[in-house]
Amino acid sequence: MLPLEALEILSSHLEDFRFDEGLLTCPNPLLHPKIDIILRQTMELCKKLTLFIPVSVSRNFLNKTSLENVDFISLIIPSYKDIKSNLQTVKMLLSQGIDNLEAYILLDSNSDFAEILSTIELCKSYGLKITLGPKLYASPYADKFLEKIAKKENVEIGLHYGRKYFYNAIKVFIDNYPVTLLTSPGAENCKTLYLNPYGNFSKCPLSRFEVNYKKITKDDLRKMLFSPCAINRNVVGLSPKIRVSFVTKEGVEIPGEILELLELISQVNSFRAACKALGVSPSTYWEKIRSLEEKLGISLIISVRGGRKKGITILTEFAKDLLKEYREIREKAIVSLYEY
């Protein structure tokens, strides 16, 4: 967990110097018990502060007191499924009067073009500012997207207008709606500084030279700030992928794909819509659900076919309890990955 002393020492070394922009990113920064202090101290070091939050963040931690003190909030959206199943988070932020929201849609070598466009359309419907880019500190994959989007009607591609999040950026107008696309690392004159959760300073996570806050000097900071960009040298970037599943005492497995489906059903109250968001066959997963229910000896979903609730699918109490435990375990796993 980030030691507050690291920010205090950085402030004393920098004296009156302030960074143009600060980026605060973490699997769930709002879990930090001292998040308000971290935000305040970071804002004293930077002219502008952007807080990155995964769109799947637990809504229990969306505290307006913390969020209203930042200049910009960027919701990280890995896929259409993630934004579709967490629209309530977007609505909650907007309903609190927080308008400085950005949808940061992840774009990598495995991104599906049609899915990206669907995600953009969904974000447009809520009036969100939209940025397409890689995981921070990874190399962008904008070329293929530009090649495909240029062939579509009602699309206008602008010129590079500057930098955003230490990447070169251009504007792409899709049906006259502005979308920012991060195209390449802004390696020239890059003056970034990275502070990890342990209190170690470096140029960025890809740099080999790092110093703990207890030993950092002004010369160390100067060396980091003026060292060359390491993003271009990062050929392969690997990150862990979490998949949670359960196994009963009798050895019956409840796989992660079923848990993800249950989570979506709880949001959209429709089996078919949930399958569509996941990009899977409703008939195939209907059989998987029924087969699993037979092995468990208990129902997971209830479909209402008549009356005013025609077409609605809801979770059973057992499935609701299962989903609650699934979310808690998944969030703990995400947080623990960042701690080690």
From TrEMBL:
Pfam families: HTH_1. Gene3D superfamilies: Winged helix-like DNA-binding domain superfamily/Winged helix DNA-binding domain (1.10.10.10). Coiled coil: none annotated. GO terms for molecular function: DNA-binding transcription factor activity. Residues 259-318 form the HTH lysR-type domain. It comes from the Archaea. InterPro entries: LysR_HTH_N (IPR000847), Molybdate_resp_trans_reg (IPR051815), WH-like_DNA-bd_sf (IPR036388), WH_DNA-bd_sf (IPR036390). This is Periplasmic molybdate-binding protein. It comes from Thermococcus barophilus (strain DSM 11836 / MP).
